[in-house]
Amino acid sequence: MLLRIAGSVKTGRKNRSFYRKSFIWFLIAASVPGLIIGVSTYWIAVGPMEKNISELHQNQIEERAQNIDDQFSSVELDISHWAFNPRFGSNLKELNFVYHFKETWDITKTLFMLQGSHPLINQVQLYINGEDTVLFQPEFYMLDDRDRMQIDGFERLIEEGTNIYWSDMLPATEGEGADTEKPIVLVHKIPGDSSSPFGVLVAELKRDKVINLLKTMTPYNEGLTMLLDKDGQVLVADNAEETDMGETLRGEVLRREAPSGTFVFEQGGITYSVSYGKLARITSEWTYISATPITAITSTVVKISNTIFIVSASGLLLALILSWLASRRVYLPVKRLLHILAGNRGENLEHGMDEFQFLEKQWNELHNESLNLQMRLEEQRTHVRSGFLLQLLQGHLSSYTEKDLGARMKLYGWDIEDHHFRILHIQLTGYDVLTERFSHGDESLVTFAASNIIEELAAQQFDQYSVMNFHDLTVAVLVMYPKGALISEQLQTLGTDITKAINGIIQMQVTITISGQMERIQQIPDMFLEVERATGYRKFVNQNQLIHMERLSAHSEGSEMHYPFALERDIIHAMRAGEKEEAERLVTLFLEDVLSARGTEILVQQSMLQLFGSIQHAILQSGISPHQLFHGENMFGQLSLIREPEKMLRWMKRRVIAPFIEEREAKANTELKRLVESTIDYIHANYTADISLELCADLVGTNTYTLSKYFKQFTGINFIDYVTELRIEKAKALLRETDLKINDIALEVGYQQRYFNRIFKKQVGITPGQFREQAEA
């Protein structure tokens, strides 16, 4: 394998054609685009941008022109609606408006209402030439010969045009009409359905509102917008000060044959995008013109292109350097992938094949393998049923309705119409006793064998059932049977058969819990939880047990609990004293004592959880953090999941007692080492004085026995020997490096001369004088 990998790597280096090509392209890609972008933006982008902006402007203008058209249509519709109102019918011609004051007041209110019905309407007038000549503005006025000018104006409105039409004339009283701005007026003759009208309903639009509406056609709040009538005359414009430009644009648009379009217009060094079109009005056709400057926008593009050009040129050298680094970094994943695929599959790059062609080949092969696996999964669709039931039992489908669950079960092939359900929970016990047959971690294998046995036996008793393997020495069977069927004997027989088969084949004991009857699918998750809880009422011994939930007595739930407090106290005392074997022996006695009371699984677990809680309290009192000691694991959760007494005892010894005593001993060793180091520091600082073991023991706060014992353990020599060796080494240095007398040197290192000579000769083999002579020679 190593030779194949090495060969593939070597071949990959020879055929790195893609890397060489990509490196060249990196150089080009990193250097040229910046310059191209700057130049092309400067010389090319401005023209197309003007075109694009013109097209965008045209689209916006069309949308906003449609909005303006809708506004005018809304006014037309409102006026037409009221013109055909019975209130403005033929009876007005003969009506005495002074005598019938209430009808006159109602007309005034109606005109006020119409006047406020649309934001564009400025004033609504009603002229009636009947028995009396009257005018509503919208207040009521009687007209006489003094108002002849106004009466003639309204009569012309009645005579001109169709029943409804737009006009730029509004009848005025004497002295009015000096206003140079033409009004925008919508005229509707009344009655609306009469061929002989005797009055008109006149709505004058607000000029400033119309101007503001036209301004929406200039997207950038600059430029010029105007509205022309059917004769090409300006009805209203939003920029009156630009009269010359407006006249030029009006003439340009009127010369064009197309009813709508867009073009570029220049004046005063500014380029405008001009859009124009028609607004079809009643008996008329208006033309809108919108001119928006685009030079300001393109000037920004020019500045940006210049900046891009400068930045690209200055970054050319840096791009050449970075392109090499980038190409290597980009190629690294490809290189690693090549090594993985070529090494794991034992293939090399073929001659003339670049890296990505090789990866494509490998990808196709892996894709084909994936398709084969998918085909195999399709063949295993039956396992989906088991997955669905596992989700159902574990409560993951609680959001589904009864109808949805029924539909899914029918889809998976179950007949559940008029069926009830029961659950059998089978727990295997005695696994830890079978150490010769099974090793640690074989629980899943044992459960798999048991589930196969249970499935064969269930097939002999029931037509519809499903076996769920939980891989933790527990198996569940969901039985579906017709409503009204008596299956108690069948369940009893199945439980007996399962017990005999597992006892004989796997040689383990069985605890079987049979649930009550369920009529709905949604009851299954809750019942499964009840079944698991009821399993806890088994006697905590390795023997076969059969539990019927319907037969559980109240006594089972209220059994008295036996707890050996004295043994708990002895266990904690042994752990504090560091007596590991004694603590383990006492824990064994504790569990045997609890089991001797023939407690249920729940009571035994509660006793062990109580013991662990007391031990954890003792650990806290000893100054050790349980969180650090147990590495943050949920110890209570682990203990509550254990179902075997032997496994529970082994967990308590290995996971609780042993770590605590080891941590306690390590902590003690650290403290003792600190005492020895403090003693050594004192010796080195005071070796010239009189030093004794008793003095040092008092200084570090311990006794002479403990200090002497651990001093030798950590240094390898006795306390007095360490002091002697230190003094002799200091004396040797003084003899070599100074001219001090031997008597003075003896005092310097804490000895009398006679005693110093004897100790020195004993340690070195010669006298101090001889040592000095040898050193000087």
From TrEMBL:
<dbReference type="GO" id="GO:0003700">
    <property type="term" value="F:DNA-binding transcription factor activity"/>
</dbReference>
<keyword id="KW-0805">Transcription regulation</keyword>
<dbReference type="Pfam" id="PF12833">
    <property type="entry name" value="HTH_18"/>
</dbReference>
<feature type="domain" description="HTH araC/xylS-type">
    <location>
        <begin position="677"/>
        <end position="774"/>
    </location>
</feature>
<dbReference type="InterPro" id="IPR018062">
    <property type="entry name" value="HTH_AraC-typ_CS"/>
</dbReference>
<dbReference type="InterPro" id="IPR009057">
    <property type="entry name" value="Homeodomain-like_sf"/>
</dbReference>
<protein>
    <submittedName>
        <fullName>AraC family transcriptional regulator</fullName>
    </submittedName>
</protein>
<keyword id="KW-0804">Transcription</keyword>
<keyword id="KW-0812">Transmembrane</keyword>
<feature type="transmembrane region" description="Helical">
    <location>
        <begin position="23"/>
        <end position="45"/>
    </location>
</feature>
<keyword id="KW-0238">DNA-binding</keyword>
<keyword id="KW-0472">Membrane</keyword>
<keyword id="KW-1133">Transmembrane helix</keyword>
<dbReference type="GO" id="GO:0043565">
    <property type="term" value="F:sequence-specific DNA binding"/>
</dbReference>
<dbReference type="InterPro" id="IPR018060">
    <property type="entry name" value="HTH_AraC"/>
</dbReference>
